[in-house]
Amino acid sequence: MKKLGLLLGILFIGFTATAQDAEGVTITVIIENVLNENGQILAGLHTEETFMKGQGLDNYMGEASKGEVSFTFKNVKPGMYAISVMHDENGNMAMDFEDNGMPKESYGMSGSAMSMGPPTFADSKFEVADKDMELKIRF
Fold it and tell me: Which is nearest to 33 in space by CA: 56, 65, 74?
């Protein structure tokens, strides 16, 4: 569990938005079950090379809103990607953990597998082709 904490902490440190130069598709992400309005929502669009290693190719940071939150990643080139999302309720830009190693804050990944232990790119990946996409993620 400490490895999960370290990886998620690194993932959300130093968020800055970056844009891709080439034209591509728009990925709309909908978080369906934000529990409260505390803090902010942090998300990253990743390739296998960046997944759980720091900033994504593109990142999102926005105010939390109870219920549903949506945002977009624009100009995404065709390829395999994964999206990681967390609800940073206290605004410290890091995942917080209980003494037993369990996360205190909600998080989710693209893909449907929710395994015990750190998320994997293989379980979270999806393919971007030539059409805009909409992905729903639940915490």
Answer: 65
